[in-house]
Specification:
There is one protein chain. The chain is an all-alpha fold and 58 residues long. The protein is 83% helix and 0% strand.
């Protein structure tokens, strides 16, 4: 189940990057801040922090 979530997030991240490459008239910072990529990065960071916290607590 966890591996499926990670795979789905990675695929979503890949498709988001492909879509952001097509819009060349805006800077990367403007594209990044105005896209769902910010939410995806936040979810991945929170997941990594939770994973590390879980490993440390054991």
């Amino acid at each position: 189940m966890k591996k499926q979530k990670v795979l789905a997030l990675q695929l979503l991240f890949l498709f988001t990057l492909i879509n952001s490459v097509n819009a060349a008239e805006e800077s990367f910072a403007d594209q990044f801040l105005g896209s769902p990529l910010v939410v995806l990065v936040a979810i991945i960071v929170i997941d990594i922090i939770a994973f590390i916290y879980h490993k440390v607590r054991r």
